[in-house]
Each structure stands twice: as C-alpha cells, then as structure tokens.
Amino acid sequence: MIRDIREIERIRGAISVGVLSLLFGSPLSAQHDPTTLGTRMLADPKVRATLDAVLEDEPAVLADQVSLCEIPAPPFDEQARAEAYRDHFERLGLENIRIDAVGNVLGERPGREPRPHLVFSAHLDTVFPEGTDVSVAREGRMLRGPGIGDDCRGLAVVLAVARALDRGDIETTGRITFVGTVGEEGLGDLRGVKHLFDNELAGEVDRFVSVDGAGVGLTTSAVGSHRYRVTYRGPGGHSFGAFGLASPIHALGRLIEAVARFNVPQDPKTTFTVGRIGGGTSVNSIASSAWLEVDLRSIGIVALDDLDAWFRRAVGASLDAENRRWGSGGRLQVDIKEVGRRPAGQTLPEDPLVQAAVAVTEALGLPVRLSAGSTDANIPMSLGIPAITVDGGGYGVGAHSEAEAFDSTDSALGTQRAVLLAVGLTEP
After folding, report:
1. Cα angle vertex 345, ends 343, 350, to 5°?
2. Can you tell me the distance from the alpha carbon of 147 to that of 65, in angstroms, rounded to the nearest whole number?
3. Ramachandran angles phi, psi of 297, nearest 5°
4. Do 384 and 234 form a contact (C-beta atoms < 8 A)?
5. What angle do CA 390, 393, 396 make, to 5 degrees?
6. Which of 19, 29, 400, 373 is nearest to 210 (CA)?
7. CB 225 within 8 A of CB 404
8. What digits encode the pLDDT tens for the residues 301-317?
9. Going by DSSP bridges, is the β-strand pair 117-123/387-390 parallel, antiparallel, or unpaired?
10. Residue 315: C-alpha distances to residues 230, 308, 331 (Å)
C-alpha cells in the first residue's frame, strides 16, 4: 500500500511512462521497454493531465460506488439499477445507449476506427435477495454495505474510465463499448454476457475486460461450473403406517454421501459442493419429494466433464440403491435439471492482452497475481476471444455477505489501471 506523497509521485511518473508506451508503443503488436521511450513520451501534457485527473476524480468514483450500491439489484431483478446506470451513460455522453432484451446496459465511445473493438464491463446484479437492506455506511476510508465491493466497485470504475477519457480528450484508435451486465451471480448463470456474445455484440468483440470486485488481481483463467438441481419423487406416506416405501430423502442422503467421497484432482483445481437441500412434509411422514442443488467446478475442461460424469453415475446409483432396499415398496423416480453452466477457459500468459495488463500493473508498482475465477470473462475466454477480469482497486472483505466492506485506501490505483487498459487495448 502507498503511504506517503513521495511514493504517490513515484507511481505517477511510472504511470505516465506506462500509459504513453501503451498509447504510442502499440503493446499488443510488439514488446517494448517503457524506459527506452520515457523521455519522449513523458513530454505529452495531455496524458499527464489525464492521469492527474484520475487521482483527483476518485472521490466522485467512490460517490458513484455508494449511490449505485444503494439501489437494490437482487437476482433476476436488476432493472432499477440498470436504469440508473443508463442515466450515468447519458450524462457521460456515450452513444447508442440502450438496455437490451435481457437487461444489459450498453453505451459506446467511438474511436478513430471501428476496430479493434474493446468491451469494458461490470455486473449490475448482487447475490442478495429482495428486501435486503442495501444502505451503505461510511466510516472514514471504509464503506460498509452488501455488494459495495462486488460489484458496485466495478460499476463505478467503468464509469470513471469513460469520464477520464473524455476529460483528458483522449481519442482512441478503436471503439469501446461500456456495459453493465445482468445475471453474473449465482443462478443468473452469466445470462447477460452470454446474450452479448450470442446476440447483441456477436462477432464484433476483439478484446474484453470485466472489472469485478476489490483488490488488484488479474483473472486470466475461467473456472467452469456445472450446476444441477436433482429431485427424487415417490408416493410418500405415513412414517409408521406406510413403512417400507422407498424414501426420496433417504435417496438424497445416499447421493450426498457418494458426492462427499469424490476424489478430485488438485491440478487442475476441481471442486464440488452440495449447496442446498430440501423436501419432506413432516417429521412423521415418508417424503414424496426431496431435492438438492450441487455445484461442480474446475479450471480444466476435461476434469470438469469427468466430475460431471461421476455425479450423474452417483445419481443413478443412489436411486437404484434406495429402490432395491425396499423392493416393491413404491418406486422412486429422479429428475436432473441443469440450472447453470459456465464454460472453463483461459487467456494464456503470452497473449498480448495479458502482457499489456501485466505491464500496466507493474507500472503502477502493484504486485502481479494471475488467478482463476468465475466471472463474465468466462464466456469470451471460452470463445477464444482475449479476455481478462481485473479487480477495481482498494481492499475488500466479506464479499457475498451483508457485512461486506470496502477499504478505499489507495483505491485510485485500481481506477488508474482500468483507464490505462482502456487506452492501451484499443490500439491495433
């Protein structure tokens, strides 16, 4: 963390070298040493003024972060926040502003040329159900409220990028589409970004950056997930009078026990969890139905497919075992419903997009950490489109809990990095 003004000034100089290398050195087409270009590039007053303005604008970024966060955006009901985000786009003077068929908010900033086309996005939705108190409390540098980091920070940073480019009068080579997506969290199943690449922007995107959450990390690998709701059904009956009937809840227990015994690889990291269960009528009834929801994940495509096959076999085995246990005592049936599918993928470290992100991060004096995650970037990665997710700066704790908090110490660094990426990634 930066603690004194001398460190800030050192980083400002590094930022200027880095951004000018991006602007004039075409980092996506060749490798460049910023120090060899620094003398000529640091003379550019427009870029230096833009970088200074980014620091000065951070209070406005934090204000946007709070105001957006206090608009509820529960799963599958992001409309109110989407409309507010559209209003922000209009005030920023973006073009072709619209809310698409699934609720994504889009606005465009043209460049000198239509390509390369960069999409810069954050997600509108939260994990919190309707009725959650989403008010934000300020305690010095700390902001406390559900969703304040994930992803109200990303939403505010995306706005800050568009504002900084205008205030700095920066003309990019390619165009940028700014997006607030729906359905990134949970059972939203990435429906917003899936729609972008299937419909709204199909075949038009060259590079994709998602700003998601707090911190300074870079997500370059997409964790794939398969999610299922499994429901067992049977005749049900009285616990004493109908004893001998096969029980959906007992079959559910057999399945959970089988899942708990899965041996999964550590590399690629592969995981499983039964996240929710339900069913039954009363303590003295044999249930007529019972269900569970399971989340299967892996960085590896093959490993995830193998885990999926194991799970499906376990479902069938648990059904057969419960039916055999009770013979003719009422046969159970099972239904497997897919409730989510996120593809795995990766943007390789040697990809120019990742190299540009690393260069910008290093120029800011920040640590480089390439990580894996499940974000909107999963979809373009799976399609072979260069994509990353970047944290939005600051420091976050308690994501996905009502005690979520955001420490704004040095948060401007995340905003600056996003601005530099937006400029650099629109170069050919």
Report:
1. 170
2. 10
3. -140, 150
4. no
5. 100
6. 373
7. no
8. 999 999 999 999 999 99
9. unpaired
10. 8, 11, 15
As a whole number, mean pLDDT of residues 224-248 equals 95
Strand partners, 215: 393
- Does an H or E element contain 211, and which? strand 207-211
Cα three-residue angle 205-94-146, rounded to 5 degrees = 85
CB 353 within 8 A of CB 388: yes
- Domains of the chain and CATH, by start: 5-222+344-424 (3.40.630.10), 224-342 (3.30.70.360)
Q: How many secondary structure helices (H) and strands (E) does the chain include?
A: 11, 19
Structure tokens, 17: 């070298």
- Measured CA distances, 331 to 13, 145, 241, 285, 334 (Å): 73, 49, 17, 17, 10
Contact 198, 110 (CB under 8 A): no
Tell me what pLDDT residue 50 has: 75
Q: What angle do CA 416, 417, 419 make, to 5 degrees?
A: 65
Over its C-alpha atoms, the chain yields an Rg (Å, rounded) of 25
Assigned token pair, 76 = 């599958």
User: Starting from the edge strand earliest in sequence, which strands make up the sheet with 405-407, in order?
Assistant: 137-139, 142-144, 405-407, 395-397
The tokens for 1 are 């963390």
How far is the C-alpha of 255 from the C-alpha of 311, rounded, in Å?
A: 9
pLDDT tens, residue by residue, 122-157: 999 999 999 999 999 999 999 999 999 999 999 999
Q: Which two tokens stand for residue 289?
A: 């139905």
- What CA–CA distance (Å, rounded) separates 311 from 250? 17
pLDDT of residue 392 exceeding 60, the answer is: yes
Predicted local confidence at residue 44, as pLDDT: 58
What φ, ψ does residue 308 adopt, rounded to 5°?
-60, -45
Q: Can you tell me the distance from the alpha carbon of 97 to that of 77, in angstroms, rounded to the nearest whole number?
A: 20
Place of tokens 């040095």: 410
Q: Where are the alpha helices (DSSP H) in 239-289?
A: 248-260
β-strands 117-123, 207-211 pairing: parallel
